[in-house]
Amino acid sequence: MSIPCRQAFSQEVLAQAKNDKNVVVLCTDSRGSVMLGDFAAELPEQFIEVGIAEQNCVGMAAGLANAGLKPFVAGPACFYSMRSAEQVKVDVAYSNSNVKVIGISGGVSYGALGTSHHSLQDIATMTAVPGLTVILPADAWQTKQMTAALTVHEGPVYVRMGRGAVPDLYGPEGESKLAPDFKIGEAIELMQGSDVAIFACGETVWHAWHAGKKLAAAGISASVVDLHTLMPLDEETILRVAAGCKAVVTVEEHSVNGGMGSLVASLLSEHNPKMIKKIALPNENIVTGSSPEVFRHYGITADNIAEQAELLLKKLG
Question: 74: closest CA among 163, 186, 149?
Answer without folding.
Answer: 163
